Every structure is written in C-alpha cells, then in structure tokens.
Amino acid sequence: MSSVVEPFSITRAELPDGGNLCEYCTAKCCRYFALPIDTPKTWREFDFIRWYMIHGRVSVFVDDGAWFVMVHADCRHLQSDHRCGIYETRPEICREYTTAGCEYDPDGAHDRLFETPDQIWEYAEAILGTRERTRARETLGLPVIAV
C-alpha cells in the first residue's frame, strides 16, 4: 500500500537525501506556459499586453529584467495525482526542466507579477505618465494574426 504525501508538507531544505521534490508538489510547472515578450516601452506596447490579458487566464511577469506572457492552462496530460501521464514520451522542454529553480517554495518566483489589465495600465502610467484609457474615434490598432 503506497502512502500519499501531502503537497508542500516539507520545505525544500527538509527534503530527504535522494528524495524527489515533485512528490511533494502540486505540479505548478505543468499548469501554465510562459513565452518571452519584448519589454514594453510605449503606450502601444502596453496596450498589446492589456490585449493579451483580456483573453482569458493570462498574466505577465518580469524575472531578472525579462518580460513574459503566462497562459494559465493545465497540461492535458497532468493526472489527478499531479504526475505526468506521458512521462516516458514527454516533450524535450519538460525533460530539460529541473527542480533547481522551480516554484515549489512559496517565496515568490517573479520580480514583478501582473494579473489584471488594470495593473499593467497602472504600471504604464507610473513609468510613462498619465494617459486617458480611451479616446473617442481612435482605433486601438491590435495585431492581426494570419491563420
């Protein structure tokens, strides 16, 4: 009979020698993907980020000065026990990922995290100055994605 380990029941420092940190985690790394984006410098670039964020469960974070758009979506192969259902044939990016810098510890993994379009706008105002959120007869000029 196997025993179920309570997620986050130990700290990283308390991990037994030879223990696997993943046995104590809820698979945070399998619940989103993040892609690098250019650091926004203009209102238009901040508007694009706002546009990303109004399309569902999307956040933006900054880590070591680099900006990322984060799409919150569980991997379709994540099992109820927080393990990979295709472990032996998982993608290379998953194979390269290690627990050395993973988000197991609750001390915050990002330098800056934006979870709402309003937070992005407030940050833009803080660094670019105040600007009205909408203007009459002005088009936003959103990107067109060819399919």
The portion of residues forming beta strands comes to 5-15%
- Shape annotation: elongated
- In N-to-C order, the SSE pattern is EHEEHEH
- Strand numbers in spatial order across the main sheet: 1-3-2-4
What value does the Rg take, in angstroms? 19 Å
- Regions with little confidence, pLDDT below 50 for 5+ residues: none
Question: Biggest β-sheet, characterized?
Answer: 4 strands, antiparallel
Q: Span between N and C termini?
A: 51 Å
In helices, the fraction of residues equals 10-25%
How many distinct helices?
Answer: 3
Describe the structure.
This protein is of the alpha+beta class and 147 residues long. A four-stranded antiparallel β-sheet has the order 1-3-2-4. Helix 1 runs antiparallel to helix 3. The longest helix is centred in the C-terminal third of the chain and has 12 residues. The radius of gyration is 19 Å and the shape is elongated. It starts with 31 loop residues before the first strand and ends in a 19-residue tail after the last helix. 10% of the residues are buried. The mean pLDDT is 83.
Short characterization:
This protein is an alpha+beta fold and 147 residues long.
